[in-house]
Amino acid sequence: MGEVAPLSVSKKVPLTAQAINLYHQPEHKNKVNQVTDIIDFFGQHYKTPNLIVRAPARINLIGEHTDYNEGFVMPAAIDRTIYFAMGWRAEHSWQLHALDISKSILLKLEEPSLPSEHWAKYFYAILLELRARGWEPKGVHCVFGGDIPSGAGISSSAALTCGFIYALDQLHQWSLDGVEIAKIAQAAEHRVGLNCGIMDQYAVLHGKQGKAIQLDCRSLTHQYAPVEIGDFRFVLFNSMVSHSLADTEYNKRRAACEAVVSFIQQHKPDVQTVRDLNASLLAAYEDQLEPLNVRRVRFVLSENERVLKAAAVLQQGDLKTFGQLMFQSHDGLSKVYEVSCEELDFLVDFVRPFSEQVLGARMMGGGFGGCTLNLIHKDAIDLVYEQLAPAFEAVYGLRPDRHIVQLRDGVSLYPLNVNP
Questions:
Q1: Residue 275's closest CA among 255, 257, 293, 251?
Q2: Is 240:401 a contact under the CB 8 Å cutoff?
């Protein structure tokens, strides 16, 4: 399969969490044991798997809500993972088992609609999308599980979809490349109900250890930006607010951007997306546009500029300026694009005074919940968290989770000969 391996709010239950429902495993659970549990279960029920695939979650260093506007983003795959054990099945159906929640389902494409189990909808949508594109997947057994925190906004659904498609591709030897897999996974999410961009899927597939992906979402080309953070660490603080992106404000923000483009396109046919706009062109038509929509587009334009600047300062090793860009990104997302929430703002504002220990912080993901991404000195992580957690709990009644993450390779095969 060439270079694909390793391409190397509302307080509702989040769609992505439903897809993998409560995959949050204890921090100390060894990844080898996770894989061993999956292999053991597979062996007890379906003999020996043909392959094991690992699919990581992702963080986005900067560049939010720019991907569906064909802008720039800077994501990275991380060391939180879903593992898939896969093997052939004689029948033309798909037997799936979600190990972490002990639930199974048998999928048949003859069924008239998506299954009722939310996590199963993604698998079914993938199978439909593959068939629509001319691929005919054969029946498989699949056991999967992992340690991606649910509702944290680190794209459990992209890990789920990309990992499953990659595994099917390996089994069938279709030789799909990473961009094709990302597009199929994105289309599957659209079938489920989230009109997402392609950043998450692309990051899950193309991650590289110790590097971020500077992705051009128009050309779907990228270069790697070095992320040499020395004694600093990327730390996620979970707002404990679950977000349901499919039926909330996410799709409204996309529609707002598209409305501006559609109007200006009548006068400037070359304008296809927000990527084709600039501040002066937007200003020329501002009086004829919905003011709120203009604000949304202004944020996207400024966020694109921040991504390009972030890439430059990372090349220079200027972490202080990079951290400032993170704070600026959050302020735009909160006050201009309005996709933050009270809890996320609390987490970011609380760490601002730790100016030497915390270089930057921002909400991450689609918004309305999930995590903040923080760049914190390793010696200050406990200090900051020990003050932040009780303060947050005193206001919101919940203690925020924390996750220290590292940048890792994207989707790849995992060796079958695993010993605990």
A1: 257
A2: yes
Distance CA 78, CA 325 (A): 21
Query: Cα dihedral angle (119, 398, 155, 60), rounded to 10 degrees?
Result: 180
Say what the pTM is: 0.86
Closest CA to 171 of 257, 52, 343, 74: 52
Q: How far is it, in rounded angstroms, from Cα 70 to Cα 308?
A: 14
298 to 114, 294, 340, 376: CA distances (angstroms): 37, 6, 17, 29
Beta carbons within 10 angstroms of residue 261's beta carbon: 20
Residue located via tokens 């997947």: 137
Extended strands (E) in 289-344: none
Beta strands in 71-168 (DSSP E): 72-88, 94-98, 103-107, 140-146
Question: How confident is the model at residue 26, as a pLDDT?
Answer: 37
The backbone region for 210, taken as left when phi is positive above 0, alpha when psi lies in -120 to 50, beta otherwise, is left
Q: Is the pLDDT of residue 409 over 90?
A: yes
Q: Which of 100, 147, 200, 409 is catalytic?
A: 200
Q: In the beta sheet, which residues pair with residue 232?
A: 377
- DSSP letter, residue 243: -
Rounded CA-CA distance 159/53 in Å is 11
Please provide the distance, in angstroms rounded to a whole number, between the alpha carbons at the two ends of the chain. Answer: 29
DSSP, res 260: H
**What average pLDDT does the segment 313-337 reach?**
97
Compute the radius of gyration of the chain from its Cα atoms: 21
Reference 78, options 155, 11, 15; nearest CA is: 155
β-pair type (51-62, 412-414)? antiparallel
CA–CA distance, 222 with 179 (Å, rounded to integer): 11
Distances 188 to 34, 51, 142 between C-alpha atoms, Å: 27, 23, 18
CA nearest neighbour of 145 among 27, 34, 39: 34
Is 318 among the catalytic positions?
no
- Point out the least confidently predicted range of 1-10, 46-55, 186-195, 404-413: 1-10
Pairing of strands 371-377, 103-107: unpaired
As given in the structure block, the two tokens for residue 374 are 């923080």
Work out the angle at residue 330's Cα, subtended by the Cα atoms of residues 329 and 331, and round it to the nearest 5 degrees: 95
The interaxial angle of helices 156-172 and 178-192, nearest 10 deg, is 130
User: What CA–CA distance (Å, rounded) separates 395 from 404?
Assistant: 24
